[in-house]
Structure formats: structure tokens, C-alpha cells
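ENTRY TYPE: protein
WANTED: fold as C-alpha cells:
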Amino acid sequence: MTSATDLPQVLIVDDEERVANTYDLRLSGDYETEIALSGETALQTVDEETDVVLLDRRMPGMTGDEVLTEIRKRGLDCRVVMLTAVDPDFEIADMDLDDYVVKPVDRDQLIAVVERALTISEYNEQMQELSSLKLKRNVLEVELSGRELAESEKYQRLEADIEQLEAEIQEMEDTLNIEQVDLYL
């Protein structure tokens, strides 16, 4: 969430203007949205400020698959959700996307998809932070005695931070699993 409004930025990419406007209306107020009616426009619009891209797969000109490939080539740190009428097949196993949802979706499903994508972003960030904290702890445990560790307030705080972060990550994992079940039933 890096926009001036502090709302997550969602780029809606769909060649059907009516569909794009419907998604925009359903997300307005909770998210800062922008619409792109083609793959080419999507690539002109997506940037470092974009948090989530809702991407139609079948579009004239540049397809959603091609847009996804280009977003990943650019190294943009956004979640990409294929939101499409194309039923998934085994090829999605090779696609670098965060979720795949088959249309139609109602308002609640659409919001759940965006929230899940945002949770995945937060989860990834927290996993990186946890890894960093654990590496620091491991270095200290290799280099210092058990007595030195036990007497160190900084080490105790590091341990507490790791424990807290692990609990938060577990909660996110539980949430992601619950949302996944709810979305696809």
C-alpha cells in the first residue's frame, strides 16, 4: 500500500468495458482502482505502486498471459490474479501468478480475491523478515555461549520477535486456507 491515499492500488485489466466498470464499482471505496481495457494499456499503467492486478486472460491484441509475462520480466512486486472466463488447464502450473479465478464473481468474491492477494503480499514480506531474524539468531547461537545468550536482553528480544512473527504468519496461513476453501466451494 504505497498510494497517496494509503488504499491498496488495484489495476483492473479487462477488454470488456462493462465488466471492468462493474469490478471498479464493486471495489471503489475500499481500494484505489484503475482500469485498463487492453494488455498494452495495462503495461503502460502498472508500476511499483500497483498492489494487485486483476487480469483477464483472453483479450484481443496482447493476451493476459503475455501481460503477466511482461509484468514478471519487469520485476514488479505486485500480486497478479487471472480473473477470467477461461477454465484453467494444466498450463497454469507454469504461470507465475498468485491466483486464478473463473468468472463470474460477485462483489464478495471479488473483494475476497483482492484481500487474499494482499494477504499473500504481507505473508511474503513477513516470511522474509522471519528468515532475516532467524539468520541473526543462528549467528549469535554459533558465536556466543549459552550463558551469554541467556544474559542478553537483545537476544531475548530477538527470540520474542521471532515467536511473535511466527504466530502472525501462522494466523495468515490459517486465513489463506480458510479463504481458499470459501472461494472455491
